[in-house]
Amino acid sequence: MERRLPCVTYVLALICVLGFLHTQFGAVEVEAVVDTQLDAAARTLRRHPYLQLPPLLEKRITPEQAGLMRRDHERDRVERAAPPVPRGVILRQQAELDRMIAATKQRIESHPAWKFGARATERHPLTFLTHVFFHGGVLHLFANLGVLILIGRVLEGAWGGAVHACVVAAGALGGMAAFFYQHPFYADPIIGTSGLASGLVGAFAVRFANERGRVIYAPSLLLAALALWLPVWLGFEGSIARGEAADPARLGAWNPSMALLMGGFAGGALAALGVRLLGLEGRIERAELQAALRAPTTDSGLERAIQEHNAGDAERAYRHLVERVKRDAGNRDVVLAFWDVCCDLRRAHEAAPALIGLIREALRSGAEADAVEYWLRLVTSELDTEAEIALLLRMAPLLRDAGESVAARRALLSALERGNEDPTVVARVAEEAADLDPDLVREAAKRALGSAGLGMEERRALEQRLASLPQSTAASEGMRLGHVYRPAGVALPEGAEPSVVGSGGIDFEEESRELHCLEAVPVRLDTEGLRIEFDGAGKRVRFERMKAVAVAVVPGLASKKVIVIDLVLNWGSLGDAPLQVVRLRTDRFDIRALSAGAEDPLAAVRAFVGQLVGRSGAAPLPDAASVAGTPFASFKSLSAYHRDVLGTFEPDEV
Asked: What pTM did the predictor assign?
């Protein structure tokens, strides 16, 4: 799915800027007229101090000043022995002053911020939303717009314009409701996007709480909080429409911006929670995906690549698609076309990351059938094990429910091998394999129970599951080594069959294990591990999977002595799981090609083994000195090496 353009966010920001400019230009004329009218009213009151002081004049003549003027006037009248001002004259003069004040109020209320601001005493529904487009100053505007764009574009890109508009409205209404609740009798209007912006912060915190890897989560929340809350904490108040009529001093300690921020945050968070509980985001994405699939293909570049592929020119189609898929990795048609071309060119591994990304997108949008279809393409090319553990565990039950039990089992086996050290992963494998393979459940449960990090409740559940399993009859075919390194159906090279201990008697004074051994040829060391080849297939053994490195000189394997280098993948694991080993024999590859600059083959072996141990942190076997080649440990036979170093036994020795 292509990323959505945040149209609602940008339109809101543009309207806010235009509203601010309109306010600034309109304020010049209004303020000039209001100032003239209030000066005239103040002069009238000073000439007739016995009149009542209108609230609108209290910023020019305070009640204390008016009282002092009234007392001075009365004292002068008494000193002059003048009669009191007739009541009729006072009433006419007061009416004239009130008329002047009413005209001034009417002019003030023609100001856009007063006209479209929301008032607690005059609750016009239209102003509940229009108040967000006007701001009290540059700082008030840009602080709110910064949050609106920073957070809003991410949210709108995630769930679309329609849902985003509803969440925006919820934040604005939540902030307004909090202010009205705190100040129900305050007549001055509130303005600005403080409540709306705070609502977006609350929605962002809820929407991406479980997907922090997709966005810059904590820094975004911190930056937004500073932009919104710091000016309020420092005393800047921009949410009340300024002017001669504004009286923020009557608001008390809980100022309007504080109310807007808290109410808006709550409104946005609740709206995002409602979107999640109702599944609105997934429904909209599925509708968009279906509409995209129904739409006719008008991509000329893609059509040209498909035509070239159909004409047999896969290489030219590859050149057209390889850059396109980097730019448009979420386009289903592009990715599938690229996959088909790469498969024909035997480069399926190049398209696997894009296809795995398409699977993730299908799962996120609820298109599980599509995800299964894409996954089976990976299985066909034996690249399904390239997916991360979380995706393997997610796909296994979907594959099982779709009747693809073999593919489901492959996914669980790969997750078990790669997550062997994580008891949560191993326990999950045991749970998902319940309807697929009792032997796999047994193996995963034993590995999980051998971990100290497993919780008590999970441990009891696994013990009960293990006790309810039928007796194992034979080693599961899929549990043979080679599940990760050797895809199903690919034979091991000659002489590299796993050595499996038979069912004879066992000396319980010794610890014995099955040995599953895969003989391979090393190709190169890279930043992530060792690339190997076996039977024409190529894989990587990652450094973190190498738990031990064993080195031994063994005679009798060839015409001269051979150095055996074993990469032990589950050394130190508890239980009776087979010991899994990738074996490298120096008579089957040129060791000097892997250790540039080595003076002789023996020095090359030392350098190569040193890199393996140093970069993987694996345990050296049988000890550090012998692995370092000072000197290498020698054994009279391969069986002796298996017994003395690896702790495994051949059938005829048990």
From this structure: 0.41
